Amino acid sequence: MTIKKKILLFAVFFQMAGCSSSTETVEQVEKPDTILFQEALDNAIGGNPEEAAPKFEEVERQHPYSELATRAQIMAAWAFYQSNKYPQSVAALERFVELNPTDQMVEYAYYLKALCYYEQILDVERDADMTKLALIAFEELIRRFPNGSYARDGQLKIDLTKSQLAGKEMAVGRFYLQREQYVAALRRFDIVIEDYNTTNQVPEALYRKAAVFFTLGLADQSDRVYEVAKYNYPDSPWTDRLTILRRAPEKLADQGLFKSTKDLVTNIFD
Predict the structure, then answer these.
(1) What's the pLDDT at 252?
(2) Weakly modelled stretches of the chain, pLDDT under 70
(3) How many CB atoms within 10 Å of residue 147?
């Protein structure tokens, strides 16, 4: 979250908690909700969200029916998020939405939940589970709030997560190609073409799919894929490679580009 958004969020809570100017320092088991909330807010603003989180939770524990209890729920989730305690944040956000489905902060709760998953994405090549969770969460945000405050950033992150997932499918597909497991490779390329058709991985997927058909001697299927690539991605270097691929291998060999048809096929999957 940007600093500007954090400041705006805090401003809302300051306004709600501003009625308290208490400087009470005597320790007590039970405190008014305004004092508990302000103490937690002071910790958050002071750069100590890890300490602030349980204090926000204490507001609800002591005063479950107060107006500040609802605000404290979302602030506790935010504090957990700022402390990189993502599972606790997600749990708090899901509880907030369940208890307050019509609250004005519900959209923010969905956005923050998606961010919790998104910021745990490390290396999609190794583990795509967190990327998939982030994608699902952002798509849910856009579905519920298509014109909301976080829709633009949510859509951007949807595009990024889809591109990452498509990249993983391409990596697996290339792995199968290296082992001449063509059916398995085609399956991966089809996933990219059908499920992630807005990503920048599609031109390569089309190229490699056509190249597999070409290698297997399925010229008609290869030509159909080429037509799709040429129509949708006329300026892609992968489409250029397909154009070269469709030329007669013998002619290319005569031009000295490849020593033989076998050499051409070997170079298809580079």
Answers:
(1) 46
(2) 1-29, 123-127, 247-270
(3) 7
Structural domain of residue 40, as residue ranges?
1-20+28-97
Cα–Cα distance measured from residue 155 to residue 159, given in angstroms and rounded to the nearest whole number: 6
Task: Count the Cβ atoms, other than its own, within 10 Å of residue 268.
Answer: 17
The whole-angstrom separation of Cα 72 and Cα 31 is 15
The pTM of this model reads 0.76
Q: Mind giving me the DSSP string for 221-242?
A: HHHHHHHHHHHH-TT-HHHHHH
Quick one: which of 18, 84, 15 has its CA closest to 49? Answer: 84
Instruction: Note whether residue 41 is domain-resident.
Output: yes
Containing H/E element for 15?
A: helix 3-17
Q: How many CB atoms lie within 10 A of CB 215?
A: 18
Q: Are 109 and 97 in contact (CB under 8 A)?
A: yes
Q: Which residue has the tokens 């507001």?
A: 59
Question: Which residues lie below 8 Å from residue 63, measured CB to CB, with a gap of 6+?
Answer: 32, 33, 36, 69
Q: How far apart are CA 63 and CA 241, in angstroms?
A: 67
Cα–Cα distance between 203 and 219 in angstroms, integer?
19
Structural domain total, the chain = 2
> Can you state the percent helix, strand and coil of the chain, rounding each to 5?
70, 0, 30
Residues 146 and 161: their CA atoms lie apart, in Å, by: 18
Domain end, chosen from 97, 116, 145, is at: 97
Percentage of the residues of the chain whose pLDDT score is greater than 70: 78
**Torsional sign, CA 67, 70, 72, 78:** negative
- For position 9, what pLDDT does the model report? 52
Q: What is the C-alpha to C-alpha distance for residues 121 and 38, in angstroms, rounded to an integer?
A: 34
